[in-house]
Amino acid sequence: MARPKKSLLSLLAVLFLAGCASRAAAAIQPMALTEVKAPAGTAPAAPAGWTRVFADDFPGTAGKAPSSANWFHDLGTGFGDGAVQQATNSTKNAYLDGSGHLVLKAFRTSNGTWQSARLESTRDDFKAPAGGELKMTASIRLPSAANALGYWPAFAALGAPNRTGGSWPSTGEIDMMEAINGWPGASQALHDAAGSTGHYLVSCAGDCRSGYHTFSAIVNRTKTSAEYLQFLIDGKVIQTITEAKVGVAAWQKAIDHGFYFVLDLTLGGSYPDGECNCTTPTSATTSGGSMSLGYVAVYEKGGNSTPTAKATAAGHMTGYEGMCLANQNSLNVAGNPIALRSCASLAGEQWSFYSDGTLRVQGGCLDDVKGTTSSGAWLDWYPCNGTGDQVWTHKSNGEFVNPRTGLCLADPLGNTSARIVIETCNDDATQRWAI
């Protein structure tokens, strides 16, 4: 997530909220807060005239991972923000608390490195319809670590074209919540090709670190010649950004398409470092700080992006020598390999064939890695995005054919330890599948 540029007013906000940002690091540390145990968050029902098209209240057993139908993990580093933590898929870093909350937790490992979590929504079709509106919102409690230098929690929506070769920031990023260094406020911003920004740190209705607060954005396209974006905190409009101010071309590239969510608890990077004039996290930064979410929800007015495709078959997908098609290690991460494995009761082997021609497992789709037309190209797990790389036709002889390429899903050369590919169709046993 990138940070908004400062203005004189934003600097005054920083002075009001946290004291002068140029003070020594120790001087800007907030007092530790007593955590408040809120009741399980429940996404509000849709107001009159609106449709709720997505909601996750994070139900489930304490210690379990969030729903793989709704979320997948980004792994490693290098997300363009200069952060130092390793994003993992461990339930030590992202887990349900058993009371209706999703917790993202950061901690320092025994070798001094940091681990945390970054999640993306599987869906990327949250869109304001022409003539209508889109509201995206989440209930979040910010980290309240005793020494929070370097903590950078975020809730953002990124443009769906990012997943199909689009270029940031022209594809749009709507930051509904970013907070840094344990300060009690949050910033919100729009990123686009025109260099739009947002507002700097603003207080919630009370301290953002104490209890749960709502962070929202409304895209209003009721009048398509005069569209605008509103940022809200605890239901109060904080800032409005208009299409006229951004410019029509940059606005349309950034706004007039679907979005997906990113939930992130980052350590270090450009935003927290820039505001403390130091390098974070420091040796004194508290390990174990967490960001907690009560719900994430999406509402649309004048449209309904709820997927209509239905599963027509489900279960194990068996192929050569009766072995099962598997999302390797049941890891729902973009680009994860697809392979053959001995059949077992694993999440990565539970496939569904949908009415839109997609083959889905763990909330994602079987995908042609590079969108090539070459026989022998690898297949992988990727968020479903409606492209031809993810569409399949099941033939009467058992072949699954990708209409875009005319190639078949195959176990290459009958090698059951190899990665699954697409190959020239030849009605061979290595290309016959049953689900």
UniProtKB/TrEMBL annotation:
PROSITE patterns linked: GH16_2 (PS51762), PROKAR_LIPOPROTEIN (PS51257), RICIN_B_LECTIN (PS50231)
Key words, A-Z: Hydrolase, Signal
Lineage top rank: taxon: Bacteria
Keyword Signal: yes
Signal peptide: 1-26
GH16 domain boundaries: 22-304
SUPFAM superfamilies: Concanavalin A-like lectins/glucanases, Ricin B-like lectins
GO MF term (any one): hydrolase activity, hydrolyzing O-glycosyl compounds
GO biological process: carbohydrate metabolic process
InterPro entries in the cross-refs: Beta-glucanase-like (IPR000757), ConA-like_dom_sf (IPR013320), Glycosyl_Hydrlase_16 (IPR050546), Ricin_B-like_lectins (IPR035992), Ricin_B_lectin (IPR000772)
Family according to the record: Belongs to the glycosyl hydrolase 16 family.
Protein name, entry field: Glycosyl hydrolase family protein
Species per Swiss-Prot/TrEMBL record: Trebonia kvetii
Organism lineage: Bacteria, Bacillati, Actinomycetota, Actinomycetes, Streptosporangiales
